[in-house]
Amino acid sequence: MTPLDLHRSGSPLAKQALGLGLLASLLLIPVCSAAPALAHHVADLSAMRPTVLNGILSGLAHPVLGPDHLLFLLALSLVGLQRRLRWALALLVVGLLGSASGLLWPGLPGAEILVAITLVVEALVLLRRLPALTLLPAMALHGYVLSGPVFGWSTMPLTAYGLGLLLSQASLLVMSLVVLRPAVSRLSPTTLRWLALALIACGGTWALAGLAA
Question: Which of the given ranges, 120-129, 153-162, 198-207, has the highest pLDDT on average?
Answer without folding.
Answer: 120-129
